[in-house]
Write a structure and sequence with these properties.
Strands 3-2-1-4 form a four-stranded antiparallel sheet, with helices on one face. It has a two-stranded parallel sheet with strand order 5-6. α4 crosses α6 and α5 crosses α6. The protein is built from seven helices and six strands; from the N terminus they run βββαβαααβααβα. With about 190 residues, the chain is an alpha+beta fold. It has two domains: about 70 residues, Double Stranded RNA Binding Domain; about 90 residues, Orthogonal Bundle (Arc Repressor Mutant, subunit A), CATH 1.10.10.10.
Length: about 190
C-alpha cells in the first residue's frame, strides 16, 4: 500500500538527524520508506579529527521507523565501516519521484544498482547504462532531483573530462565523498 503526495492519505513522516563526519544529515521517512536525505552544505572540508567522528543519531532516535533505522545503519556503515555495507539492506524508498515510472527514476535506480562504492561514471556513461545514450543532460537533471543522495550515489557521476561537476551538497562535499570512497576502497583492497 503506497500512499504519498500523489494522492491518498499523506504519510506520517518521522525525522531523524545523523551526526556524520561531514556534518548533520537530516533524514525523513515513514513506515513505507525513506522520503529524503538532506545533506549539510560544507564551507570547508573536514580535517582529520572531524572526519573520524562516529556516526550517531543526535535527534529523533526515539521514533525511528524501520526504513529510517536501516537508512541510519547504512549511512553509519558508509562513513565508518564500508566493508560492512554489502551485508546491509538498502532501505525502502517512499519519495513520489521514485514511485512513478520515469526516465529520472530509471537513471537513479541504474546508478544505485550499477555504480559501486569507489567507482565513478560520466553523465554520458550513465545515460548509456540507463538505455538512452543521448540523454546525458537529462541524467544531470536526474542527479539534481535525487531525493536520496549518498545511498543513491549521485556524487559518483562526473564529467567525461574528469571534472567533478555540480552537487546538491556542494562541490566540497562531492570531492570529500569521492576521496573518502577512494581511500576506503584502497584500504579494503
Amino acid at each position: 500500500q503506497v500512499n504519498s503526495k500523489l494522492g491518498g492519505s499523506p504519510c506520517r513522516q518521522k525525522h531523524v538527524v545523523l551526526l556524520s563526519p561531514v556534518g548533520k544529515i537530516e533524514i525523513s521517512g515513514c513506515e513505507a520508506g525513506v522520503h529524503e536525505i538532506k545533506l549539510p552544505k560544507m564551507s570547508a572540508l573536514p580535517s582529520g579529527a572531524e572526519s573520524s567522528v562516529a556516526c550517531e543519531v543526535c535527534e529523533g532516535a526515539e521514533e525511528m521507523t524501520e526504513p529510517l533505522q536501516q537508512c541510519t545503519a547504512w549511512l553509519r556503515a558508509y562513513f565508518c565501516e564500508p566493508a560492512t555495507m554489502g551485508t546491509l539492506p538498502v532501505p525502502a524508498f517512499h519519495h513520489p519521484l521514485l514511485q512513478r515510472d520515469s526516465f529520472t527514476r530509471q537513471v537513479l535506480w541504474t546508478l544505485l544498482n550499477h555504480v559501486k562504492f569507489g567507482e565513478a561514471v560520466s553523465y554520458k556513461q550513465l545515460a548509456d547504462l540507463a538505455g538512452n545514450s543521448r540523454a546525458a543532460r537529462a541524467v544531470g537533471g536526474a542527479m539534481k532531483s535525487n531525493p536520496i543522495p549518498i545511498i543513491i550515489p549521485c556524487h559518483r557521476v562526473i564529467h567525461s573530462n574528469g571534472a567533478t561537476g555540480n552537487y546538491g551538497g556542494g562541490h566540497l562535499l562531492k570531492e570529500w565523498l569521492l576521496s573518502h570512497e577512494k581511500l576506503q576502497k584502497e584500504k579494503l583492497a
